[in-house]
Amino acid sequence: MKTYILALSIMMAATPAFACTAEEVQSKAMEVSTKMQELAATNPEKAMEIGQKLATAQSQATTDLDGACKLYDGILEDLK
Fold first, then answer.
1. CB atoms closer than 10 angstroms to residue 32
2. Which region is the signal sequence (predicted)?
3. At a CB cut-off of 8 Å and minimum separation 6, what does 65 contact?
4. CA–CA distance, 1 with 13 (Å, rounded to integer)
């Protein structure tokens, strides 16, 4: 019985339980949007540069949620 519980625990830990959800993508998109507006007011050139990455993230968000989350995370790092 202990072996079964241990094996089940290992399988559960290996499962991608923290996969990105559509809600997370939407939340990250809203955060990026807010920060992009702030950046556009202070540094329009950098805002345009990051805007190109943002266009990629938006097209990817409908097909690859994990990829979109990673892309939004990268954009948020660029905005810092």
1. 23
2. 1-19
3. 19, 20, 21, 22, 24, 25
4. 18
Using left for φ > 0, alpha for ψ between -120 and 50, and beta otherwise, residue 21 falls in beta
pLDDT > 80? residue 4 = no
Q: Are 75 and 50 in contact, with CB atoms under 8 Å apart?
A: yes
Total residues belonging to the chain: 80
DSSP string, the chain: -HHHHHHHHHHHHHS-TT---HHHHHHHHHHHHHHHHHHHHH-HHHHHHHHHHHHHHHHHTTT-HHHHHHHHHHHHHHH-
Q: Is the pTM of this model over 0.70?
A: no
